[in-house]
Amino acid sequence: MAGSKVAHAVLTGPSVVKEIVIAAGLGLAAGTLWKMHHWNEQRKVRAFYDMLEKGQISVVVEE
């Protein structure tokens, strides 16, 4: 009684080039999101100081 042959997937080691490309892509995506967040915060701060300079807002509490 001979057992039937079952085709198994051949497991290979990690592909260094593929891992470098994936890591670079993820790094660029994360960096882009971080810069967009940073630019948005800068825009908010700049708008705050522009309004403060124009006298539209004040940091002094009115009584």
TrEMBL record:
Described function: This protein is one of the nuclear-coded polypeptide chains of cytochrome c oxidase, the terminal oxidase in mitochondrial electron transport.
TM segment ranges: 20-36
Keyword check for Membrane: yes
Family: Belongs to the cytochrome c oxidase subunit 5C family.
Cell location: Mitochondrion inner membrane
InterPro entries in the cross-refs: COX5C (IPR008432)
Domain of life: Eukaryota
Keywords: Membrane, Mitochondrion, Mitochondrion inner membrane, Transmembrane, Transmembrane helix
Name listed for the protein in its UniProt record: Cytochrome c oxidase subunit 5C
Major site of localization recorded for this protein: mitochondrion
GO cellular component: mitochondrial inner membrane
Species of provenance: Saponaria officinalis (Common soapwort)
